[in-house]
Amino acid sequence: MKYLFNLEEIEKSLFSVYKNFDQINSKLSIKREDMTECMVTNIVEAYRFLNQLLRSNIKIFSKAGLYSLLEFNHIVLCGANFKKKYEYHSHIMATRTKYQKNIVHLFKWYQNEENSLKGYKLASGFYFRQLSQPQLFIEGNHRTGNLLMNYILLSQNKLPFIIDQHTAHNYFELSGAIKFSDKLNMLDKYFKLPGLGKELSKFLKNNSSDKYIFQSEGHHDH
Question: How far is it, in rounded angstroms, from Cα 183 to Cα 131?
């Protein structure tokens, strides 16, 4: 049975973070940029695009799917508005250049590990490699990374993790520690990042939920 993402429930959870963001951010060790209503809308649009790919059986981590992986970042930053994408054309081209350089090692890692690492370990392994320095994209690495992490979980028959007001603090703390780690630094690569990856894997498992997915038959996105 094929599962898709429940956009209504995802939107509700993301808006709960948006409405409580100032309070959440004030308690973080590393402060985050302000969360906007537009960010929430764009993330939901990216999940809508992901549902289209899932319906079409397009595998993102294949050579044919790598363009779609880049498109997630564009939607997260600009939405599905083509006019806005045109306005940000130079930024999109710069993002594409950085992505093409950095995706090579990440794609190779995923291809090598897909059959040995499973579920939450594979998803967290991808996430900390994508989010740590040097990052995959110029901007929007947290948001795009979370979406891709959930794609991996669903493709591995695991429940996804969507941030809400209750899980936001711990998730942001973990993500912040990952973001400011450098996989080119030997100590970070072999000690710090694998430890954070284990912590994230456990966190995802404990906070995943079936309310964010539905069986695809007879249901349409809103």
Answer: 10
Distance separating alpha carbons of residues 26 and 24, to the nearest angstrom? 6
Contacts of residue 31, Cβ cutoff 8 Å, sequence gap at least 6: 25
C-alpha span between 212 and 45 (Å, rounded) = 15
Which residue intervals of the chain are DSSP H helices? 7-19, 21-26, 37-55, 66-78, 82-87, 89-113, 119-131, 141-155, 168-179, 186-187, 193-207
Considering only the top CATH level, what class is 3-215? mainly alpha
Domain boundaries, the chain: 3-215
DSSP state of 135: P
Q: How far apart are CA 185 and CA 83, in angstroms?
A: 40
pTM of the full predicted structure?
0.93
Encode pLDDT of 196-212 as tens digits: 999 999 999 999 999 99
CB of 81 closer than 8 Å to CB of 92: no
